[in-house]
Amino acid sequence: MNILIAIGGKEYSKPTLDLGMKIANAFEATTTIAYVGKKISQFSEKDVSVVHQNLDDRELYRPGVRTLEWAYDFLQSKNYIKQQDNDVTFNDHLLIDEENSRMRVLLKGSHSNKIDLILRTGEIIDQLRSEVEANNHDITIIGGGGNKGMHHKLVQFIDSSVMVVKNYSVNKKYKILLPVNNSLGSNKAIEIAQQFAKSKKLSVEIITVLENKSSDEKLKNILAKTKKRFTNAGIRNTATVLEGNPIETVVKYAKDDSLVMLGVSPKNPILKYFFGSKPISIAQQCNCPVLIAK
After folding, report:
1. Which end of the chain is less congested by CB atoms within 10 angstroms, N or C?
2. Strand (E) positions, the chain?
3. SS3 category, 55
4. For 208-220, how does the pLDDT look when each residue is reduced to its tens digit (9 = 90+)?
């Protein structure tokens, strides 16, 4: 499993990073934590290069470096990384230039196979999409605040499963809400939910929403098979059949202590962007974290 966690401002990114690392830990995943900053001018890049060559005398102040320092300290405080040479503080010497828009800090993970701290510069959607394509990330985890239009585009155009972390509290006891249907994405959501629930000892509420008579029996069978799967895996679960509009029903059923995990059907992203997607609408309207599996 390969996970990408996108962080922004320090005060808003703690829930995203906390939940993201719990998911990464559950899967023993290779994890990339990325901050995307505005692309600096050619003149500024030259100045930064000079500063970078003289780090003994001056600190490197490229936008996002201090956020990486905060993320480094957070990971260390949670024992996700080990100290390097007994140095307990972030050191700009650890930054490695890989290309014009990417810098990296390679860290040793105590729970994950590998953790990378990445600084990219440029347009956020393009940079995260490039990061996913270059490194084959399975899940991209993003914060739920800020520009909803940007989140919509991220979910649509990034070629990985996406979790939108909205109103997450590190002190709250969560349970997984798993809406199931006959989509390919739903099978992926079931796999992710099972692994995460097993690792973190969470209970799972499995639901299906009946929208028309023709699919009723098929959805009931999927619900029953999913319940049996979780029961056989030793995971506490309930299974419920609901009726109505899937978007409205799931949003109403989800609580502030829910972690919603659901799948999306494969479709041309351009068509989905203009004509909509039920999982994306659910993610926008729910007041809790939502994972959309692809």
Report:
1. N
2. 2-7, 30-37, 96-99, 102-107, 114-121, 139-143, 161-165, 175-179, 204-210, 237-243, 258-263, 290-293
3. coil
4. 999 877 678 899 9
Label residue 198 by pLDDT band (50, 70, 90).
Answer: very high
The answer as to whether 170 is a domain residue is no
Q: Are residues 75 and 134 in the same domain?
A: yes
Task: Please check whether residues 153 and 19 belong to one and the same domain.
Answer: yes
Sheet containing strand 175-179, strands side by side: 96-99, 102-107, 114-121, 30-37, 2-7, 139-143, 161-165, 290-293, 258-263, 175-179, 204-210, 237-243
Q: Which domain holds residue 208?
A: 175-293
Name the domain boundary from 126, 142, 165. 165
Show the DSSP H helices in 246-286 as ranges.
Answer: 246-253, 269-275, 278-285
CATH number, domain at 201?
3.40.50.620
Whether residues 197 and 69 share a domain: the answer is no
Q: What does the pLDDT look like over 82-132, one tens digit per residue?
A: 665 555 466 666 778 887 678 888 665 555 458 889 999 888 899 999 999
Q: Which residues of 162-184 are buried (b: 16+ CB within 10 A; e: fewer)?
A: bbbbbebeeeeebbbbbbbbebe
- At 287, the amino acid letter reads N
